[in-house]
């Protein structure tokens, strides 16, 4: 055993001289076995300032275990672990040496790896976490947790399950159920909202996987704050929606403008106008009012859900402050809730209106009519509806003016044709009468 054991064995006397050494000791100390015999152990120690006192104290103990730095070979130093037994035979002391070089390298590599991980984990902007897969309690989390959530790491360690309370209530059930599935699926990849310590709602992107070792089952993952990305996505979606809305609006206005331009018959034109405006504005009753004179308006066309029409009805502009404002200022009027307007008069054709807008139809700087749109519910019409109606009113006024010109032209042409067909005096007979007048005239 002495010759073949893998640990080094030294036998020392009371003066710390080596009496015997096995081959393993020579290998560990990198000295020929014969050179170890008679060598004082003090010559092998890298630090031996208080050797005499330490050796005296050593002899007074029965056993000793420690790690020592020894000078070996050609002056190199190594660390060895040793166990010593004093006076196993009177005056004989046994030292058993173990070369811990590989273990020391492994421990040093582990420490360096841990230091590197700690350096990264302490400075990275993402949360790194480790959770017990069975209890769902967090066992490790890096400082980014405080930066992102506003809560301290200590509060999480005091209550390792408190992380679930940070998840937004509307996302909590989904996220926790996905977390339970990690044990079977092995993966977790979710985006969800959480409540920051200051009460604001933010977004997290969490990715994790299952890991097992001899100490248990774990879920290890990262969490990244993606609030800025979500805000950018929402803004982009809003812009896209606004673009689509603008495109649809432009197409609707173009379609309406073309439809209005193709109708020169007044009745057909007004029906087309109310139909086109109905595709843009959700009114319950729409009326086209023509200006008769400075004080009166006539209902030229009306469309409503009740199919009741009052075409030809004459109303006085002086009875409504809103109509007067439109006529004299050439500006639209919008009343989101007529119940809150003291000057509102519930009269034809605005009866039962709880939300109303009037848009002037202007041609050559003159108001030729008013487009009136009513809704039976307060706030059913909005400023956006007013903008759409104003855009269409421009084309409508031009089309109405063109239809009037065309109608006047038709009336004039009809009058000319009727006059042309009236019987005319015979020109030849008139000439004969001048040459040979009747005897009665002579």
The appropriate CATH architecture of the largest domain is 2-Layer Sandwich
Biggest beta sheet summary: 6 strands, antiparallel
Distance between the termini: 181 Å
Number of domains: 3
Mean pLDDT: 84
Strand content: 25-35%
The CATH homologous superfamily name of the largest domain equals GAF domain
Query: How much is the radius of gyration in Å?
Result: 52 Å
**What is the count of helical runs?**
13
* CATH classification class of the largest domain: Alpha Beta
Helix content: 40-55%
Note down, in words, how this protein is organized.
The protein folds into three domains: 8-104, 2-Layer Sandwich (Beta-Lactamase); 124-225, 2-Layer Sandwich (Beta-Lactamase), CATH 3.30.450; 255-417, 2-Layer Sandwich (Beta-Lactamase). The longest helix has 38 residues, at 383-420. Helix 9 (227-261) runs antiparallel to helix 10. The chain has a six-stranded antiparallel beta sheet with strand order 13-12-11-16-15-14, sandwiched between helices. The protein is α+β, with helices and mostly antiparallel strands. It contains 13 helices and 16 strands.
